[in-house]
Amino acid sequence: xxxxxxxxxYRVDAVWLGPPKATFPWRARYVAWLIGIPIFLxxxxxxxxxxxxxxxxxxxxxxxxxxxxxxxxxxxISHERPLGTVVAMAxxxxxxxxxxxxxxxxxxxxxxxxxxAARPLPKNRRRRxxxxxxxxxxxxxxxxxxGAQGTPPRARRSRSAAQGxx
Length: 166
Hints:
By secondary structure, the chain is mainly α. The protein contains six helices and two strands. The protein is elongated and about 110 Å long. 3% of the residues are buried.
């Protein structure tokens, strides 16, 4: 069994052919007239702002531009996608945030890198108020502080770390 859809009902164009007994030689939907007339007036206004004088050829160019723009717009409009939806979609597309394509920063240089003579201390040693102790190297296997077979002595944990179970 084949089920027919109601698409044929919506595909019928609402077309105005012109006044009775004097129809136009072209078919234009109502929405095309609704779009075309304001576009024609805007194109005439733009021509005046551009400094073109009002005449036959300037009006003809405005008429041709109106036809082209109206056809581009009405090609996107149908019964499934009405004019209001297309205008809202265009507004959202133009107003949406875009990805920043400009590069941040510039060439890398070490000109602003601070170099210190002293090695920075770990965060847990910075809190102490005692003066920093100098690192002393005793060497492997030399002295009483070495472990078995010349290995360096094991580091001792601080009392706070030992009490915390770390």
